[in-house]
Specification:
Blueprint lengths: L2 H6 L8 E6 L2 E9 L2 E6 L11 H7 L1 E8 H5 L3 E4 L12 H11 L3 E3 L7 H10 L13
Antiparallel strand pairs: 1-2, 1-5, 2-3, 3-4, 4-6
Amino acid sequence: MDAWALKFGEKPEPGDLIEIFHIGYKDWAIYVGDGYVIHLAPPTEFPRFGSSKMFMFLSRKAVVANDPLEDVAWGCLYRVNNHLDHQYRPRPVDEIIGSAKKMIGDKKTYKVLFENREDFVTDLRYGWPRCKLVRPPLV
C-alpha cells in the first residue's frame, strides 16, 4: 500500500473529484493524474493577491489552473469524494480529462452559491453542475 492510501484512505484515479478541507471553507478539484489537479484558482492578473482564495471570492473572478494537488491543498486534509456517482453516471475519463485540460487558462466568473468550485468539477465529471451548498427550495 502506498503513502496516499495510508494517509488518506483512497488513492485518486483520473477523473475523481477531490474535496479539500481548508480552514473555514472547502475547495474542490478534479484529479488528472500524476499528482495534479485542475481547479479554479485566483486570477493571476492580481499577483499581489494571487495566492489568496479570499481574493477570488471578493473579485468574483477565477482562472482554471493545473497544479500539484499538494500545492492546492496547502497542507490541509483532502479526500476522493465522487458524491454524486449514485445519482449521475460519470462521463468517460478521457472526456473528463480532455474537457478539463482544454479549459486551463480560461477565466471564469466565481460566485459562492453558483458558478463555484464544486459546480466546476461536477460539471466536468457528470456533465451537469451540481453543488451541495445550494439546495432547491422546498415547496
